[in-house]
Amino acid sequence: MTTTPAEALATPARLPRQVPYIIGNEACERFSFYGMRNILVQFLISSVILAYVPVGDREGAAKDIFHSFVIGVYFFPLLGGWLSDRFFGKYNTVLWFSLIYCAGHACLALFEDNKNGFYTGLFLIALGSGGIKPLVVSFVGDQFTRENKSMAKVVFDAFYWAINFGSFFASLLMPLFLRSYGPAVAFGIPGVLMFIATLIFWLGRKQYVRVPPVAHDPDSFMHVAKTALTSTNGAGRPGLYVAAFGGALAIFMLMAWAIGPAWWPEDFGFVITACLALGVLIASGGIGTSMQLERARGKHPDATVDSVRAVLRILIVFALTTPFWSLFDQKASTWVIQGRAMEIPHDVWWWPSFLVKDAGQMQALNPALIMLIIPFNNLFLYPALRRMGLEPTALRRMGTGIVFAGIAWIGAGILQLWIDGGSQVSLAWQIAPYLLLTFGEVLVSATALEFAYSQATQAMKGVIMAFWYLTSTFGSLWVLLTNAGVRTDAVTAHIANTGLSENAFLMFFFAAFAFVAAAGFAWYARGYPMQDNYRTP
């Protein structure tokens, strides 16, 4: 029977059958990642790895190591995205980096009492996890066309739900395994799950849509930017001077770290310095290119020049979300340390004492709430807002999410004031900040997966996703810079004059940081031109 055009239009879009392999892979991979990440600070504080650090400074040292690790995890997407887009394609790059990832987990399990071996494991996990991070999400998007893109949002939400399904069980169980069976078992189980994740991904190899890499593209983002910066068109080159100044400043900062002059901040190690230098390069290069981008027309297709302009706009959106990540990632460091000073309410009837025995397990609230909030938003909240005439666009959701993160940290700051006042504060009170922060995360992070893919052209999807994950690198950079700042005498004296403890002051500081970022995000989002860059059939 012949299908008429009307019948074809009425045919409902179908879920690509290869998508479950990718989602299954992600659920296991996220268990492995969050399983080790969410016990890292607790392990370091009491381990021989930090035996060289005075006892009173171990919490701060553990936070610095944790956020340095997070910086690596979200920096290496740049490498993975570049290798995928230019040489190997997403499937091959994900598979190979997954094997590196497995090796990193093995190092953590085998070298629990060896500093060099343990740090090697953290580096390999950062490399492997970061290398695949931008690719799995965009690989999901590659399985869709404009004909069935209506299902993409559902799948992106399901993808994010699977992430948190794995994260929930990892966050709930791994602190118990660490407590009962030691670090070898607690770090070994995530390694087994990462191997299973790699196997699941490999099993779907014959069904995937594989978009080939775009090698030697004369109209790539970098080629267009180079043309724009070096063209004169009979005028000066102010954009080139801005980019060159940024490059020189970045080199100067790295040299200052290497030489170590007296005026260079003592706490600005390689990680902080390299991230600052990278930020300067991205900002100056982006501003300079934007200033002269029209000069690339005629030498590159207009559509390509327009797509570069779109990417530069996306990077501004990304930059404005970095304060959110400075708040969010501290739930596995600052909030865990706060929880260790609180009382576990075993005496109340509703507390699951048979299961929740450690403050670190509160992190399981985050993925558990996400699995509830995502369907609640899609089935109830967003339809209700639309009936009220308020369209919950991607940018509106992201800006609102940053606000909720700030409110969550006000709640955490109030709890810290109670603790500092000598009160016996129940750990159950942390549920409120976790709820607010998680609602903000759904609005920011789950939405950004869809936003970043839809805004990037096909040749730049892997790299733009890498830039999205780089926002977490700079989020942790703000944390490291703040931690370094409070170690100076001037800042310490200022905090003392406020009458607040250092922990309470920083919690309110980060809340204010989020509100300022949300205001800037709202201002910029008002004029942002949305794009539609899904693949054509």
Automatic annotation (TrEMBL):
GO CC, alphabetical: membrane
InterPro entries in the cross-refs: Dipep/tripep_permease, MFS_trans_sf, POT_fam, PTR2_symporter_CS
Membrane topology: Multi-pass membrane protein
Keyword list, A-Z: Membrane, Peptide transport, Protein transport, Transmembrane, Transmembrane helix, Transport
Cellular compartment(s): Membrane
GO molecular function: peptide transmembrane transporter activity
Sequence intervals crossing the membrane: 34-53, 65-82, 94-111, 117-137, 158-178, 184-203, 240-264, 270-289, 310-328, 364-385, 397-419, 431-453, 465-484, 504-525
Biological process according to GO: oligopeptide transport
Main location: membrane
Superkingdom, natural source: Bacteria
NCBIfam families (UniProt xref): yjdL_sub1_fam
Similarity comment: family membership: Belongs to the major facilitator superfamily. Proton-dependent oligopeptide transporter (POT/PTR) (TC 2.A.17) family.
The protein's name: MFS transporter
